[in-house]
Each structure stands twice: as structure tokens, then as C-alpha cells.
User: Fold these one by one.
Assistant:
Number 1:
Amino acid sequence: MERLDKRLASSGRWSRAEARALIRAGRATVDGAVCRAPEQKVDDAAAVTVDGAPVEAGPVYLMLHKPAGVVSSTDDPREVTVLSLLPEEYQRRGLFPVGRLDKDAEGLLLLTDDGPLAHRLLSPKYHVDKVYYVETDGVLDGSDVSALEAGVVLGDGTVCLPARLEVLEGGRSAYITIQEGKYHQVKRMLASRGKPVVYLKRVAFGPLVLDQSLPKGGWRALNLPEIESLFRH
Ligand code: URA
């Protein structure tokens, strides 16, 4: 059970003060009846509306096509953050990215306010595949495939779990699949092979595939099958 004003505010669409004002103005209903009491307790199953439109309870899951030049942190006074690409109602909601992409990297970023799910998706225990498309300065070959499969050792001695490398025609681009999320991991893995990354884009995260119709900087809510696939994973 939670207060009605809190339920409205946690949708991200109104601040707590705005929620209180609209409730007092008689714009909210609970299970079909107008409710003018912000402190009214409602449970998750209650049908809540504002101006006739339903206000769902529960977490939010968004897919963002991160462009280069923005940082994955939620709050940074000097940089443009991924959150600033979302509408204000979501910015207020306490969403955070599940794992980070470097400032110069692009691609699929999952944003949610579901802490337990995020924790599981990021834990190495759960072996969630992350697939990146990379372009390199230097030609990738079979020796890189074998080295990554065996688990490369980074410059600082860190040993990486085995990774899959699918070299594309010409050898200067590839898909790489890893299950960890160490700092600058893909760049450091390929730098250790003497083939520095010049372009990096995440194309898949577990069962989620970057929606090709999303422009850079574009986002959309995950659909139900996508959310279910994350939980099944
Ligand atoms: N590996 C990197 O080097 N950078 C990223 O942003 C993600 C994976």
C-alpha cells in the first residue's frame, strides 16, 4: 500500500506537490471513485486514473539508443547525461542505466528503476551476453579469435572470461560478445591484442536487441515480451 500522491509522483509524470494539487482538484479516481485525499492508501492492484487516463504502478523499462558524446551517469554537472535525453517525467523518476557505455560509445542502453532486476543483469553470476560491434585500427584474425576465446590478460594483469569474436570481412570490424562489464573492457581487450578500437556500439544486451528503428538519441519503452524475456533470462 502507498499514498495516492506518492503513487502518482512515482509514475514520473508529476512532482509530489503537483500530484497533491490535482488530487485535491478532484482529477484523480481510485477504483472508479473520485478521491480528493492525497494521503489515501492505495494498493498496486487499485485502478488509478487522472483525467480519465490510467496511471500504472510498477517499474519502468526503457531502451535508449545512446549517441556518442553523452555520459551514462545519471548526474554530471559538466557533461550531457543519458537521462537528459528522456522527457522530464522520466528524469524525475529515478531511472538509472543498467551498466555503462563509454562517452564515445553508442548503442543499446537499458534504463530502469527496477534495482533488483538491474542487479541480476549486471552480476557476472548470471552470464548475460553483451554484444558489441567494433571497428579497429589493425586487422583482426584467427589468432585474436583464439586469444579471446582463451581469455585475454589485460595490461594490468586482469584476466578476462572467454569472449566470442566474429571477425567481419576485411578484418577491421567484428562482433564481440562478452559476459562481464569491466571498465573499458572491450577497448582494453582489443588493445591488448595491438588492435585498438576506433568505434564501439552495443547491439545487444542479454535477450534485448537494439531496435533498428530508434535513431541515435531515441528511446522507447520495452514491450511486454521484451520485459518478460529479461525476467526469464
Ligand atoms: N567496453 C568498452 O570498452 N566500452 C564500453 O562502453 C563498453 C564495453
Number 2:
Amino acid sequence: MGLERIRERLSKESLEKLERIRNPYLHEFIAKYVDLCDPDEIFVSDGSEKDLQYIRERAIESGEERPLAIKGHTVHFDGYYDQARDRKNTKFLLPKGVSLGSSLNAIDREEGLEEIHKLLDGIMRGHELFICFYCLGPTNSIFSIPCVQLTDSSYVAHSENILYRQGYEEFIRRGKTREFFKFVHSEGELDERKTSKNIDKRRIYIDLVDEIVYSVNTQYGGNSIGLKKLAMRLAINKASREGWLTEHMLIMGVHGPKGRVTYFTGAFPSMCGKTSTAMLEGESIVGDDIAYIREINGEARAVNVEKGVFGIIKGINKEDDPIQWKVLHSENEIIFSNVLVDDNGKVYWSGMGEDIPDRGYNHSGEWWKGKRDKEGNEIPCSHPNARFTVELKAFDNLDPNLDNPNGVKIGAIVYGGRDSDTWVPVQEAFDWVHGIITKGASLESERTAAVLGKEGVREFNPMSNLDFLSVPIGKYIQMNLEFGKKLKHPPKIFAVNYFLRDKETKEYLNEKIDKKVWFKWMELRVHNEFGALRTPTGYIPLYEDLRDLFSSVLKKRYEKEDYIKQFTIRVPENLSKVRRIRKIYEKLEDIPSVLFRVLREEEERLLKAKRRYGDYISPDDLVE
Ligand code: SPV
Ligand code: MN
């Protein structure tokens, strides 16, 4: 039997903790990887405060984290070349005869398993293995997915304790079941800075058959924290088999009149304002990254898969992000990663709006202003992808439904990209199918300076979920379309664009804060309390309604002239977009035909409007 094999390696306490879970499949899995990875020590966590404290302490003692000046704060560094998700080396293990479509990265399952097991062989010698149990989604709920994480990184275990709900009791309750996700992670050999050394052997392999993800020779959270983007790939596949959705979405409560709260989910590619939207002042946050969505009694209901935030820190400043700023400067349990630290244990990051010291310590080691890397690039004080890890309960704006086992009822879904010239700031799709196809499945984002390659190039990113799809794109879109059919009143679908620029001056047409108004407008539309103008691409707000909202929400005057500039329908740009998106889908396999039909209808509406009104259609022209 599984546990018998590794009995000798476990302390009495750890053995008892494993024995309390009466699940031979779990025991077998653990024994297999303990045997293979061969750690010096093993710690089994039952999620008690004592065990959480042990992991916090081990993270400091092992040198993977260092304490900072404020109580509860620590800093962790990833290797200089291990600062982001590794798309190239993240692969699905594909059994013979199975296809995930040409756009997903995959290798033959047998070959991949052999490679990864070779890499894992003896990899934990000299390391301590942490065995932790978690639950994706609230515990004891239809949404719950129990997970076991094996990792030799105290930083990864510590991060997961902040980000995920404990699942030890969930495993005990379920007893003998094969239905749980499994994660095997090893940071591999470490250098003197305690960062993964063998980056060339970094591999993240996803086995959909046994629902195991393997991750080796990396520490960066997006590659190593099993329950985050690794579990998301398993969950998308599971959801497609079971008829629900796993989405790369925030969840927030938008507060309407008379205490009404309407829940929104929202998908935005990286650096398009997802976290700042989830953190909007005056609204409440349920989650900022991953949502499970199920149909329950004809309603779409969503839960946050996580209970913490692994947020981008770059650009967070006191004025624009008061809620996050306060959390980052209070005595909370926070892991900062890849920021700049001075001798006094104070942290700094790019765009924080404070003077940055000329020297310190960061992801490149000792750092000084003007320091260059091997490639000759100047090293900024903090990495653009530097992050902070903190529990949601630290935030004043936390919504009371975070742990509701039935989730929250979704009133609206929002898709948003970085788009300088096409979409209006906010618009509403005509219906579910139109929204899924022309907003969600047509989502694009322009590259920013933070990403390699030509700035401004648009990257196609359907539902902002492209990196995590574990089913072919066509099937994923089909799942979304079908999900809507099960609902009595499907959520309204909106598209937002915070990045629209003036055609001539190229200035941004909105301030960051304007999104507060768009959300209030959408909330009122969900309840049919505002009218709207029908355009070829969707419904847009009426000037008078926005004027009133700008005045009541932001105490700002909203000029007709600004409205016209912002909400003019740019026909040539919209036509190019429809055609660009169609071309992408034409090259993919098994795309539902309705997608092409809906894109053609959108194109026809645009062409018809162009004939009548010209290339740039002022909302005034559309008033009937
Ligand atoms: C993202 O990049 O979408 C993140 C961070 O949320 S990561 O964990 O790297 O996926
Ligand atoms: Mn994300």
C-alpha cells in the first residue's frame, strides 16, 4: 500500500495526518513522488495555524524569503530569467490519437512523462518536501475542487497558504475518491541567492488524463503555484466535460441605487486594468483573477477560485490606488516579489510615485541605478512583473460573499482590452451570442513596452484565456455559447476600453477614474433603468445619462464634446477588426459556424451604417 512504502520517511505526526485521509489514491500518488523525488525531510500540513506558522518560518530559515521592516511582510526573489510564465516550456501531454488543435502547445504524453520523471528523479535530495491540501473555490460547495500540492519550495507553500482555502478537511470528508487535482513542483537546484539554477531545464507539463501538473526548475508563481494557472488548465478541461466555465475573470459587486449590489465578472488581458477594476473604490471585490461559473437553477453563478491576490505592483500609487496602497503599507501577511529593497527593509517599485533610492537589492542581486544586464539592457528598480501576495481579507472593500458556497449571481460580464482606436469606452452587446462572439471571442490587446516585440501590435486573446486553454479554441467558444442557452436570463455582456485615444492628437480620451462611471452605467442597464443608443456594434450610453453620472459619481462636468469624441463609432477601425478576427478564426479548426455568421452580420451593419452616415458616426446621428 502507498503509505507503507514511505512510512519510514515520515514523522509520526505527518504519517497520522496522511492516515486520517482515507484515500488510497491520494496515498499512492504521494508515495510515488516521495519515492521518486527523494526529499531529505517531509512536512505534511493539515492547514492548522501551527502548520501555517511552520511554513512561514521555514520560508525565512531557508532563505527563500527575507523579513522586511513592516511586521508580516517578506520579500522573495525569482531568478533573473525566471520572472514570468514560460509559454514555450508549458506543454500539454497528449495521448495518442487526441488533438487539442494546432494553437495549443503539446507533446506526446509518453515522451513528456518520461522526460519529466527523469527530471524529478532525486531532485529533492537535500530539500524538504511540503505536502499541502487546498480547495479551489469555497469549501463544501458544488464548486469545490480539492487539490494536493507537493513542493520543495517553502515560498510556494507559503504563497498558496495565502492564496487558497485550506482543503485538508475537504479531503477527509470526501474519503476514497479519484477526483482531485495533483501538483508536483520542484524548484530544483538553487544558487547562492536561493533562486532556481537550471532554468534551461524549466518544464511545466500538464497531464489532463491523470489531472497532474508537473513543474520543475522554476519558482515564478505563474509557473510554480500549482493552484493558480496550472490548475486553471485542468479546470478548463474538466469544466468542458461537465458543462460549466473556468474563466480568467475578476468578480466584483457593483453598488447600485438603494443598496442594490449587482455582480459583474470581467476578463481583461494582462496590463489592461483588471486588478484596478476589481479594486474600484466604492464597489466590492470578490476576486481579481480566476472564476468558476456554473448554472444553478437557471442562473449564472460565480465563485472566486482563490482567497488572495497575486497582484502586479508596478504603478500602484497612493492617488490612483488608495485601497491597495493602504494594504501594502499595513501590518498584513504579504510576500513581495522582485521589488527593490533598501538596507532598512523598505520596498520600492517602479511607478510608486516616491523617490527611488540609487542602490538596493532586487531581482538582479545588488542593484544600482544604471546597472545593466548581460544583454546590455538597463535594469529597472523592480521587475515590470513584480508582485505582491496577500489575502483578500486585508482589503476594506472585500465583498461579504467571498466564501458563499453558492457563489454570486452574475448580472453582467465585461470584456476589456487595450485598444487605442477601435472600441468606444463602454458598450453593451445585443445579446449573449453577439457578446460572446464580437466582444469575448474578439478580444485583443495591444502590446505594451513591458512585452517584447513591436509596441502597439494587437495580440488576439479570446476571453483573455488563450494562455490557459486546455480544449481547442472552437470547443471553448462553443461551451460559452451553450452555457448561455441554459440560463433563464443570461447576464448582459459589455465591452470596455480604457485606452481609447483621440484620432488626431493621440491623447487618451478618458481618465483612469472614468471607469467608475462606466460601471455605474452598466449596473443600471442590467436593471433596464437607462435607455441606450443602438449602434452597429452594440448599445452605447445616452449623453444625458452619462452627464448625470459623471456629476453624481465623480463630481465632474461631462461635456457633450467629450462624449461625441469618445462615443463616435469608428467604422473603418471596427471593420478592420471584424475582418482581422475572422481571418484568425478561418485558420483554426472546428470553429462554430455561428461565429462566422455573427461576424458577417456585424460587418454588414457597419457597412450599411457607413453608406448612410460615413466613416465616423457621431452618436447624435443615431438619435431617432
Ligand atoms: C497573469 O499573468 O494573468 C497572472 C499572473 O495573473 S500569473 O500567475 O503569472 O498567471
Ligand atoms: Mn491572471
